[in-house]
Amino acid sequence: MNNRKILPFYMSYPLPIAFEDDREMVKDLEYLQQMYPLGAKKLLAEINKALSIMDYEGSMIYDQYPDRFGLYKMGKDILENLRINPNMGKNDEQLAKLLEWDGIEDLILVILFAEILKRRHQNNDGYLKF
Questions:
Q1: How far apart are CA 120 and CA 124, in angstroms?
Q2: How far apart (Å, rounded) are the C-alpha atoms in residues 126 and 105?
Q3: Which of 5, 21, 113, 126 has the fewest beta carbons closer than 10 A?
């Protein structure tokens, strides 16, 4: 007797469903980023500027396992650029207070990692690309 189970066609090739989930995740993340406090939104803008430089084919942000030290260095560089830029802190009181906070580096890293995750799934240039 033949006990093989036959799978429907859509169960055999689940990749389009998986990519649909990625698009939904990106939409959710973008919606939640719109609710960031004003200071975090300004940090996000600066992080996006730095990531646009790193957004090319073969970049470390698209590696399957990105280099931890490289990402931490990128976060520190973003923070230094914000602190060195004389126009940022003087014109924006909220951002100036945020830059004086002890946990600012951790906040920048969290926003940076979330933005990298969004770019990896938005462009399908990461390890999911075939």
A1: 6
A2: 26
A3: 5
Phi, psi values for residue 35, rounded to 5° = -90, 0
DSSP 79-102: HHHHHH-HHHHHH-HHHHHHHHST
107 to 32, 115, 129: CA distances (angstroms): 16, 12, 29
User: Hey, what are 18's tokens?
Assistant: 């998986």
CA distance 108 to 130: 31
Q: Which one-letter amino acid corresponds to residue 129? A: K
Query: b/e for 67-94, b at 16 or more Cβ within 10 A?
Result: eeeebeebbeebbeebeeeeebbeeeee
* Helix (H), strand (E) at residue 104: helix 104-123
How do the pLDDT tens digits run along the chain, 130 residues long?
Answer: 566 766 555 555 555 555 566 678 788 888 998 999 888 998 999 999 999 999 888 889 999 899 999 999 999 999 999 888 766 655 677 788 888 899 999 999 999 999 998 888 876 544 444 3
Give me 129's structure tokens. Answer: 């690309």
Domain ranges within the chain, ordered by starting residue: 21-123
